[in-house]
Every structure is written in structure tokens, then in C-alpha cells.
Design a protein that fits this description.
Blueprint (H helix, E strand, L loop, with lengths): L2 H18 L4 H15 L5 H5 L4 H19 L2 H12 L7 H14 L3 H19 L4 H14 L7 H12 L6 H24 L23 H19 L4 H14 L9 H7 L15 H11 L1
Helix pairs in contact: 1-2, 1-14, 2-14, 4-7, 4-12, 4-13, 5-7, 6-7, 6-8, 7-8, 8-10, 11-12
């Protein structure tokens, strides 16, 4: 059978299993890539392994590790409390803050992909602490980032407007940005109206955070973690630092300064990193194994 067709069949099988079972589809995808790439397509093992998305792997591990440290020392919990105070204790306002926060960050330079990678980890935790559906949080952050994606000063907007200028279409920067913003706002509004009115059915729903009457005390490790994360975000946005490798550096600073110790050690932060930062769970298990299969098919 043609390797491309066989790879497509393997990819469909892996995706079907990811939706219907708890089979580790990451490892399954790697196994398919090896079998099809080496024994059907005639590739060398090194060529198959070259299809593994190392950059994605490092980005996911680095970012997840950094925010795992912020989770174990309760920095994210503190930030969630501040967010709810900003929303005056109304959990329905929190998704709106996520949307416009992501839109503003995306519009000033990094674009949707980097903004989502930066905000999703902290946003998911903060949304959960505030009693917001994780699905709604994800939709608001993603659509907010898309809404600002074609800003005339964002990296994506500059590329898009440059391509339009080459085609002779100039002077439409604002129209393109506005059309994209309105479309993303419309999708987010539908998601908000539909999901915000539906009660969460999970048996493990985290109680909504109520705004404290007095300011929350912030420990020294938490302050350090906030400073490091802020510096990391600025480095990515302003100085174009590599997202994953700079996250590792930020995590190293936090662990070296022992900001991950209270209330539990740095080892606890590692245990909160999903196994899927090997090809095992969450977002990651649905991409690198499959991408390796696709790489074998392309070869």
C-alpha cells in the first residue's frame, strides 16, 4: 500500500482512539511513524526521528514547567484572587477580561500564537480558580488573541499588510484589522452567551473564588515568580527570545532561587507538569506523535 495512504489511515486511527479510549496516542503515533516510515516507506530511523517536532516539545515542556512552579507556590492562586477582585467577585466578567487582555497583548506585537502560548497556562488556572469553565476560558483567550492578530503593529499584521501592499492593496490596514476583530468578537460572544449560561456539570468543580476583604499577602517567592514571569513575557515580546528555551531559563532562575519551595519542593512542580510533555497527555499527545506520522507520509 502507498505509504501516504497508510500514514493517513494510521493518523485517523490514532485520532479515533484519542476520542474513544485512554490509549496513549502519543506513543501510538510514534510507533506508527516508525513502522510505516522504516518498513513501508523505506526510510532510515534517523529520517523518521527527524520528523519529531523538537521545537514544539521544548516549548511545551518549558512553558508548562514555568507555570507549574507558579502553581506549586500558589502564585497563580494569588493572581486569580486579584483577577476576581478586578471583576468585583463576578465570575461572568472574568471571561471578558480574558478576551480583551489577550486581544490587547496580541495586537501590540506577538500575534495570536505567541499570545495564546503565553496566556493559556496562567489563564486556565486562573479561570478554574474563578469558577469559569475551562472550555470557555480557552475560547475567550484564543478568540481574543485572534481578534488582535491583524493589528497593523503585530507581527502577523505586518506580514499580512506587506503581502497586500505587494498585490497593490494599500490603505486597508484598519479595515482588515476591524473585520478580523469583529469576526473574532462575534465568535467569542456566541461562546460566552452559550457557555456562561450553562451550569458546570463536572463533579470536581472548583468553588468560585470570592474576593478577599483585604489585600492578599504576597510572599517573597511569589513576588520573585511574578517578576521572573513578567521578565520572561517582556523578553519574548520585546526581544524576540525563543519561547521554550527562555521559559526553561526562567524556570531555572525560580528553582535556583528556591521560589518553588513553599509550600512544596521543586520536585512537586515537576510532578504537576503533565506527562503529555512527553508524548502522553493534554495538547502534546495530540500533536508530536501525529506529526511524526505526517512526516513519514511526506517523505
Amino acid at each position: 500500500m502507498n505509504p501516504a495512504v497508510l500514514s493517513l489511515i494510521a493518523l485517523v486511527i490514532a485520532l479515533a482512539l484519542s476520542m474513544t479510549s485512554r490509549v496513549n496516542v502519543g506513543w501510538l503515533g510514534l510507533a506508527f511513524a516508525w513502522l510505516i516510515g522504516v518498513y513501508v516507506a523505506g526510510l532510515k530511523p534517523d529520517a523518521v526521528m527527524a520528523g519529531f517536532p523538537v521545537s514544539l516539545f521544548l516549548t511545551l515542556v518549558g512553558v508548562t514547567l514555568l507555570f507549574a512552579i507558579a502553581e506549586t507556590n500558589r502564585t497563580l492562586e494569588t493572581l486569580a484572587g486579584w483577577l476576581v477582585r478586578l471583576a468585583r467577585g463576578n465570575a461572568r466578567v472574568v471571561p471578558v477580561l480574558f478576551f480583551f487582555g489577550a486581544c490587547a497583548l496580541s495586537a501590540v506585537g506577538p500575534g495570536a500564537v505567541s499570545t495564546t502560548a503565553l496566556l493559556a497556562p496562567i489563564g486556565m488556572v486562573m479561570g478554574e480558580r474563578a469558577g469559569v469553565s475551562p472550555f470557555l476560558t480557552a475560547l475567550m483567550i484564543a478568540n481574543g488573541a485572534n481578534a488582535g492578530n491583524l493589528s497593523p503593529i503585530s507581527s502577523v499584521g505586518v506580514i499580512a499588510n506587506g503581502a497586500m501592499a505587494k498585490a497593490g492593496l494599500t490603505g486597508y490596514e484598519f479595515e482588515v484589522f476591524a473585520a478580523n476583530f469583529i469576526a473574532s468578537l462575534f465568535v467569542a460572544a456566541i461562546a460566552y452567551v452559550w457557555l456562561a449560561r450553562r451550569p458546570r456539570t463536572s463533579s470536581a468543580v472548583t468553588p468560585p473564588v470570592t474576593p478577599p476583604a483585604t489585600a492578599v499577602a504576597v510572599s517573597i517567592p511569589q513576588r520573585l515568580t511574578m517578576i521572573v514571569i513578567a521578565a520572561w513575557i517582556i523578553g519574548v515580546l520585546v526581544f524576540n527570545l525563543n519561547l521554550g528555551l527562555s521559559a526553561f531559563a526562567a524556570a531555572a532562575i525560580c528553582t535556583t532561587a528556591r521560589s518553588s519551595d513553599p509550600p512544596c519542593g521543586a520536585g512537586a512542580a515537576l510532578t504537576t507538569v503533565p506527562h503529555g510533555c512527553s508524548p502522553n497527555s493534554g495538547l502534546y499527545k495530540r500533536s508530536p506523535g501525529a506529526m511524526a506520522v505526517i512526516a513519514a507520509a511526506k517523505a
